[in-house]
Amino acid sequence: MKMAANNHKKKRRRNDRPAGGGGAFLAVCSGLAGLIAMIKRIPLTNMIGDNGNAYYSMAFDTYTFFFLLCGYAAPAVVAKMTAARCSKGQFRNTRRVWNVSMGLTAGSGLICALLMFLLSDVLSRRVLGEPMSAIAMKILAVNLIFASVLGLYRGFFQGMGTMVPTALSRFLEEVLCLIVMLVAAGKMGEYGSKVGALLQNPNYEQAFGAAGGILGLVIGSLVPLLFLLVVFFMFQSSFRKKERKDMGKGTESYHRLIRILLLTSFPVILIALVTQGSVIADQIMFLKMSSKSQDTIVQWGVYAGKYRILSGMPIIVVTSICASLVPAMSVSNASMNIGRLKEKAQLLLRLAVLLALPAAAFFAIMADTLMPALFKTGNLELPAALLRIGSIAIIFQALSMAMAGILQGLERERNVLINSAIAFLVHIITLYILLKSTKLGITAVLISTIVLYALLFILNLLSVQRRISLRIDWGRMIGTPVISAAVSGVIILLINKLLTEKMGSMAMTILCLILGTIIYLVLLLALHGITERDLKDIPAGEILITAARALHLM
Question: Between 412 and 434, where is the model more confident?
Answer without folding.
Answer: 434
